[in-house]
C-alpha cells in the first residue's frame, strides 16, 4: 500500500456482498451516503438451490437474490464491484483500503466477509455438499422431509442436530464414532437409531446419495445426510485491524455491529455463525443505521471546527 495513490473517498466501504453487506449498502445508499461494496464473488450458500426462511423471498435461488440486491443498491446510487480487498490501514479515524487497481479512502468500514464451512475428510462428501449432504434443517429439511436421514457424528453439536432433524423424518440414523451415555440415551428416547463405527465414504449412484459406507464395508441405505460443519470465520481483516475477540473466539460486536475498533462494523456470518440469510440482512440494516448516525456526529464535529 506504500506509495499507492488514493483514487477516491467514500463514506462507507462494505467488504462482502452477501445479504448482510448488500442490505447495509442499500440502507446507506438510500440515506444518500457514498457507499462502495467490494465482493469477492464466493458466497457461502452458492451450492444451495434456494433460500428459505425469508418472508417474501422463500424459495429464491441465492444467485438471483444477490443479483436483485446489487441492482437495488445501484438504483440508489451505491456501487458494487467484484474484487478483493488486499489490505486495510487505519489512518487517524479513517481507512485506506487497497484493492487490485487502487486505494480507496473510507470514512467507515462494514465487514461482511462471512465464514467457511470446514467439513470432515470423508470421500465424496464435499462433492454432495448442498445437494443431499446438508447442514441447516431450517434451510433444507422441509424439501427432503420423510426421507431416510443420516447424521454424521463427527464433532460436538452433531447429537443436537440429530435430535432436531428427527422433527422432519421418522427414520433417522446417527453415525457415532464415540458417544457418551447421556447423548446415547437422548437419541434413543427421540427415536434415532445409532450405528457405531467409523464412516468410510458415501455411496452415490445416478448423481444421488444412496447410502453411507462404514469402514468395515457395511452400507447403511439413506438419501439425505446431515453434517454439522465447523464454522471458521473469514475475519483476518478484522483481527488485522485489532478487533477484539469474545470469550467464544469470534470477533466481538455490539448490538449494532460495532467492533472494538472505532469506525469498523462487522455483520453476518463473520461474527454470527448461526445467522441465516434473513438474520444477516437484518444485521446489515442495523449496522447501516448505526454507521449513518456515527457519520452525522462526525459531520457535526467537522462543522464545529
TrEMBL record:
Residues 11-283 form the FAD/NAD(P)-binding domain. The keyword Thylakoid does not apply. InterPro entries: FAD/NAD-bd_sf, FAD/NAD-binding_dom, Ferredoxin-NADP_redctase_2. It catalyses: [thioredoxin]-dithiol + NADP(+) = [thioredoxin]-disulfide + NADPH + H(+). The chain crosses the membrane at residues 12-29. Gene3D superfamilies: FAD/NAD(P)-binding domain. It comes from the Bacteria. Pfam families: Pyr_redox_2 (PF07992). One of its GO terms (molecular function) is thioredoxin-disulfide reductase (NADPH) activity. Keywords: Flavoprotein, Membrane, Oxidoreductase, Transmembrane, Transmembrane helix. This is NAD(P)/FAD-dependent oxidoreductase.
Amino acid at each position: 500500500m506504500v506509495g499507492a495513490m488514493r483514487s477516491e473517498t467514500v463514506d462507507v466501504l462494505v467488504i462482502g456482498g452477501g445479504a448482510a453487506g448488500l442490505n447495509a449498502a442499500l440502507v446507506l445508499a438510500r440515506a444518500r451516503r457514498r457507499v462502495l461494496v467490494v465482493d469477492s464473488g464466493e458466497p457461502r450458500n452458492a451450492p444451495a438451490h434456494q433460500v428459505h426462511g425469508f418472508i417474501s423471498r422463500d424459495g429464491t435461488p441465492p444467485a438471483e437474490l444477490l443479483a436483485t440486491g446489487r441492482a437495488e443498491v445501484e438504483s440508489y446510487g451505491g456501487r458494487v464491484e467484484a474484487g478483493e480487498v488486499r489490505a486495510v490501514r487505519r489512518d487517524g479515524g479513517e481507512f485506506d483500503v487497497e484493492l487490485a487497481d487502487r486505494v480507496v479512502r473510507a470514512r467507515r468500514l462494514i465487514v461482511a466477509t462471512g465464514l467457511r464451512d470446514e467439513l470432515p475428510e470423508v470421500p465424496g462428501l464435499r462433492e454432495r455438499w448442498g445437494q443431499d449432504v446438508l447442514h441447516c434443517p431450517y434451510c433444507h429439511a422441509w424439501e427432503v422431509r420423510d426421507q431416510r436421514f443420516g447424521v454424521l457424528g463427527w464433532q460436538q453439536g452433531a447429537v443436537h442436530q440429530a435430535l432436531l432433524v428427527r422433527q422432519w423424518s421418522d427414520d433417522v440414523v446417527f453415525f457415532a464414532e464415540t458417544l457418551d451415555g447421556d447423548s446415547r440415551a437422548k437419541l434413543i428416547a427421540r427415536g434415532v437409531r445409532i450405528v457405531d463405527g467409523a464412516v468410510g465414504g458415501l455411496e452415490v449412484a445416478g448423481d444421488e446419495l444412496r447410502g453411507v459406507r462404514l469402514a468395515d464395508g457395511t452400507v447403511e441405505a439413506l438419501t439425505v445426510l446431515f453434517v454439522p460443519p465447523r464454522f471458521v470465520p473469514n475475519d483476518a481483516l478484522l483481527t488485522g485491524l485489532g478487533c477484539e475477540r469474545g470469550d467464544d473466539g469470534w470477533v466481538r460486536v455490539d448490538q449494532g455491529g460495532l467492533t472494538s475498533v472505532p469506525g469498523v462494523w462487522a455483520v453476518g456470518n463473520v461474527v454470527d455463525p448461526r445467522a441465516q440469510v434473513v438474520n444477516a440482512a437484518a444485521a446489515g440494516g442495523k449496522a447501516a443505521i448505526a454507521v449513518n448516525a456515527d457519520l452525522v456526529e462526525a459531520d457535526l464535529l467537522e462543522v464545529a471546527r
